[in-house]
């Protein structure tokens, strides 16, 4: 039975139990009613209450009986429905079992069919695998067979080579054995010869020692002393021959090259002349009278303070009669200050406002003078195309001096010398003159820019579009950069000619005296020197030597050593001639 049927049976059983309980309650109530008195007192409250209660109980029993009967009816209908459902369920179960049996039969049939098909496919695949394996095996067998044949052939070839090598080794062993026999024989002969040579060498060594002892006994010198004496003699002879060779080479070089170089340089120097001014950081202004000094100083020094603050030039008023000094390291600024003070003295009106007005006027006047000086120098040299800023910088060099030589005139002189050299050597004259003329342009900015004036000038030339040859000549004229072109070399040479000619430049007295003292010290420090004289402002050195200690060749060597040491240790313009004097005197007295 299904679960639904069991549930229906349980419900019916419960309803039956309820009905039985209601019936038993009803019977008990009837029995109680039957036992009650027949005619109870009508006004007894207990009786009335009991009666109402019994009536209510009876009504309740009836209601319960009606409900039980309706419940029984419903249970009967439910049981009938349950039986109908159970019958339908049984029918459906039967149909399901039939359908399941049919599906199972169909599945069994399908499985048999699939299994049969799988068996046939497996047999076909196995057959194909067996055929492929058979073909692969045949290929491998054929490959192995061919490989075996090749290996057999290789083994045979190796065996042949081994046989050939063995034969060659046998022949080589025989040759080596023969050679060993010959070497053994030669070794025996060499041993015999070596023994005889050792005996002969021993005899020769003994004879050499005996001869050396005999020579030392005869000469009265040991071997070391004789060797030292021989080395010294050879060294002296070599020095003498070297000095003679050097002298001959120098004479030949002078005959072939110095004459031509001297002609070019002297010709260039003789064709150029220029004024020279003394280098100074002080300018002197003469006054019409000493009373003007008080007007220049002003009340409580206001005029002199205003002048120094406006011009940047220090004004020195001392006891010098009718003169004042202007001091400044910038030559252009010093010239502007000098011209300003000169105009103020001529005008007579000296006060701070007037100083500023006159300073502006003097400044424009000096700028015009600089511009005119630069243009005149360019015209004299023959340079037409140049940047305007370069012209202004060149004009500032009118008031710049170097070792007492005016820089602008030095540039003009250097350009002319370089042009003469370039013409003699058949080079590009305008390019070389331009390089020489611009080589010191950096000195116009040495008070404003840090660094060497050669590098400053090269940067300026590069900035304002000068040719690379000109730039290189400017930066290389003091060897900050190694010279690489002929323009740079000629610029150096013309600069040296302009600055080194007699009278071109002056030095401070202290540096001049120190250089002369050092030159004399260098020459006096050599062996055999008796006296040293510095002549012609240090441009010639006369060295007096002892004739007994220094011979003619030694004098030539001494002169070269002194000149070389001076070149290495000192810096000087031009050149210094070293002359070694060796004087021999013979004195006899007649009695």
From TrEMBL:
Its EC number is 3.1.-.-. Keywords: Coiled coil, Endonuclease, Hydrolase, Nuclease, RNA-binding. The keyword ATP-binding does not apply. Transmembrane segments: none annotated. It is an enzyme of class 3 (hydrolase). Residues 79-117 form a coiled coil. PROSITE patterns: HD, KH_TYPE_1. Residues 407-500 form the HD domain. The keyword RNA-binding applies. It holds the Pfam family RNase_Y_N. Belongs to the RNase Y family. Endoribonuclease that initiates mRNA decay. PANTHER family: RIBONUCLEASE Y. This is Ribonuclease Y.
């Amino acid at each position: 039975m299904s679960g639904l049927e069991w549930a229906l049976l349980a419900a019916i059983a419960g309803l039956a139990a309820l009905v039985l309980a209601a019936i038993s309650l009803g019977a008990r109530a009837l029995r109680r009613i039957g036992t009650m008195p027949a005619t109870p007192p009508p006004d007894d409250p207990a009786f009335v209450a009991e009666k109402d209660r019994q009536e209510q109980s009876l009504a309740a029993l009836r209601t319960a009986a009606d409900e039980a009967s309706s419940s029984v009816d419903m249970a009967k209908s439910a049981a009938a429905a349950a039986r109908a459902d159970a019958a339908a369920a049984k029918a459906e179960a039967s149909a399901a079992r039939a359908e399941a049996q049919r599906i199972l039969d169909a599945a069994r049939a399908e499985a048999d069919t699939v299994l049969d098909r799988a068996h046939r496919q497996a047999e076909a695949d196995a057959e194909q695998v067996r055929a492929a394996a058979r073909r692969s095996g045949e290929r491998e067998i054929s490959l192995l067979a061919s490989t075996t044949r090749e290996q057999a052939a290789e083994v045979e070839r190796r065996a042949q080579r081994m046989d050939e090598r063995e034969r060659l080794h046998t022949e080589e062993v025989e040759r080596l054995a023969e050679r060993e026999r010959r070497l053994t024989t030669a070794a025996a002969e060499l041993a015999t010869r070596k023994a005889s040579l050792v005996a002969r060498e021993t005899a020769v060594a003994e004879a050499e020692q005996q001869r050396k002892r005999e020579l030392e006994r005869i000469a009265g010198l040991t071997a070391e002393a004789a060797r030292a004496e021989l080395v010294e003699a050879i060294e002296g002879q070599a020095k003498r021959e070297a000095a003679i060779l050097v002298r001959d080479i120098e004479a030949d070089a002078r005959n072939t090259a110095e004459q031509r170089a001297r002609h070019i340089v002297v010709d260039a120097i003789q064709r150029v002349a220029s004024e020279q001014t003394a280098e100074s950081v002080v300018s002197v202004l003469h006054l019409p009278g000493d009373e003007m000094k008080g007007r220049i100083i002003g009340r409580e020094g206001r005029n002199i303070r205003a002048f120094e603050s406006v011009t940047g030039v220090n004004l020195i008023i001392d006891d010098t009669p009718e003169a004042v000094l202007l001091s400044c390291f910038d030559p252009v600024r010093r010239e502007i200050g000098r011209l300003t003070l000169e105009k103020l003295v001529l005008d007579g009106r000296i006060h701070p406002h007037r100083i500023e007005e006159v300073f502006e006027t003097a400044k424009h006047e000096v700028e015009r003078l600089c511009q005119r000086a630069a243009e005149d120098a360019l015209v004299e040299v023959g340079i037409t195309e140049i940047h305007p800023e370069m012209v202004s910088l060149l004009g500032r060099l009118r008031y710049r001096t170097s070792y007492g030589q005016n820089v602008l005139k030095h540039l003009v002189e250097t350009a002319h010398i370089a042009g003469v050299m370039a013409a003699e050597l058949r080079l590009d004259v305008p390019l070389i003159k331009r390089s020489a003329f611009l080589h010191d342009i950096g000195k116009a900015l040495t008070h404003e820019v840090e660094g060497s004036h050669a590098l400053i000038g090269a940067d300026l030339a590069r900035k304002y579009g000068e040719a690379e040859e000109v730039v290189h000549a400017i930066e290389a004229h003091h060897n900050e950069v190694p010279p690489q072109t002929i323009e740079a070399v000629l610029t150096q040479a013309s600069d040296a000619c302009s600055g080194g000619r007699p009278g071109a430049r002056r030095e401070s007295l202290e540096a001049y005296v120190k250089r002369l003292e050092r030159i004399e010290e260098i020459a006096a420090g050599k062996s055999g020197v008796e006296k040293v004289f510095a002549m012609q402002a240090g441009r010639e050195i006369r060295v007096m030597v002892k004739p007994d200690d220094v011979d003619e060749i030694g004098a030539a060597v001494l002169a070269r050593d002194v000149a070389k040491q001076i070149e290495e240790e000192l810096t000087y313009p031009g050149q210094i001639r070293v002359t070694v004097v060796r004087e021999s005197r013979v004195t006899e007295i007649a009695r």
